[in-house]
Amino acid sequence: MNVLIVTACPNGQVTSVLCSRLLQAAAERLGWSTQVEVHDAKAIGSPLSAAAIEAAELVLVVKTGELDLQRFVGKRVVQSTPSEALADPQQFLRSAAEQAQVLEQAAPVAAAASGKAKLVAITACPTGVAHTFMAAEALQQAAEQLGYDLKVETRGSVGARNLLDEASIAAADVVLLATDIEVETDRFAGKKVYRCGTGIALKQPKQTLQKALAEGVLQQGAGQAQSAESGKSATRSGPYKHLLTGVSFMLPMVVAGGLLIALSFVFGIEAFKQEGTLPAALMKIGGDAAFALMIPVLAGYIAYSIADRPGLAPGMIGGMLASALGTGFLGGIIAGFLAGYLALGLNRWLRLPQSIEALKPILLIPLLASLVTGLAMIYVVGTPVAGIMASLETFLQNMGTTNAILLGLLLGGMMCVDLGGPINKAAYAFSVGLLASQSYAPMAATMAAGMVPPIGMAIATLLARRKFSQTEREAGKAAGVLGLCFISEGAIPFAAKDPLRVIPASIAGGALTGALSMYFSCKLMAPHGGLFVLLIPNAINHALLYLLAIVAGSLVTGVVYALIKRQEVEALAVAAKA
Hints:
Elements lengths: L1 E7 L4 H17 L3 E6 L11 H6 L2 E6 L12 E5 L1 H6 L1 H11 L1 E2 L15 E7 L6 H16 L2 E8 L2 E3 L4 H6 L2 E6 L12 E5 L1 H6 L1 H11 L1 E2 L12 H34 L13 H30 L4 H13 L3 H22 L9 H40 L2 H17 L4 H14 L5 H23 L6 H15 L7 H6 L1 H21 L23 H22 L3 H10 L1
Parallel strand pairs: 1-2, 1-3, 3-4, 6-7, 6-9, 9-10
Antiparallel strand pairs: 4-5, 7-8, 10-11
Helix pairs in contact: 5-8, 9-10, 9-15, 10-11, 10-12, 11-12, 11-13, 12-13, 14-15, 14-16, 14-19, 15-16, 16-17, 16-19, 16-20, 19-20
């Protein structure tokens, strides 16, 4: 049989490629000939030619959004979603061959059914690597199953993608902000807005869409909206979201600075001390420039998250003072919150005649908030916080083996508790902040432990294949790749399905890896990148011991979960009896 396979998952490019490859392999096992078209500019998959479409006996369309099918009119077509296609690719193909129907007429892509709910959404997480795109894909699939019209804008580490246009926003019934950091909302003024985290959108996409339609609150302008039901919890989580916003903007500075410093060490650990040399230039760019901006950027964007643009200048000024006074990331956090809430209070309570109201955001707020923040940092905050940071640095540099192992156990376990959730992000933010104080060991332990859960799940699917369904085995392969890239969220599909076994197994392996990393005195210069950071000379010391720590923890997680997981068939039988 001559089959065409078309995959189109605009917010899940990995899913598009994965679906196409698995379906193509399954078709080849059935003896079918195939041609593939992947709707992703960066993926391998050429557009289907008119001749290929004319010769096709069956067209399989796997998508999570709208797709123009006009060219397939008159052909036998089956439309489905990635979740259905990946459950059992070979059986899916057989069923598709039996159930395919001739496409009589393709509905215009822009046409929407009468009364069809329309939503637009934005997804954004602090690192902008995993949760951003996984949540977008989950929402797209849920919207298709519910019959909703949904467009999602992703704000990841590569910038904004699938930008929402004014027409889509105007036509939407509600705006869903599935974000862990603050995003600009001015363009949604006058629309109903519902807020939640990316984790909720990923784990409960259908309920999230339904709650957004039912509980969206009218956006009154540049302010922030939240549902009446979740108002109290949202208020409590506000400071945490502001902190993560600052960390997300600081990360590029940390990555660039750390790797540039590591590159300067390629020429010798002290080669940068010779003025005019390339190592000295690299150290100046990485240490004197990028690292010097870390604390001001952290403080500035914490304040920006709280008070929008009026908070940016006083926040950065406070952050620069925090850095100059030696208060480290802790002083930067204090400066950011102080400047942000000062700017917010001045913006709300400072009343001026209408004729000079325009001076408030560009003159009075930056002046007064910067003055008060600066004086507070110099005369109140600076000395005691600098003493705390000095004590912390001394403790980290001189701590004994036992304390190092305990710290590694704590950080490693925290990284594996909620796989990208608040506890995971707290451990990560703590370790990233210490990089500004040249404390690199906690960052090494944190990243190593964060790689363990997905790699462990991949190992478990290999060790106990019979206990896992075909879908889980395929998810295990993807999890292994994500784990190597330090994307802990790769283990979420397993944790969501079997949390009482996956999470303890992950914590055991992560805690071991964190403890071993600290015991081996591993130090990491960059806060992200996974094993690929090892390709950069001197980005990490004791590279082989670091690999050993990751392998040991991953094996523990994989073996433990392989032993305690209930076989899929057995679990179904128990559920049937219940």
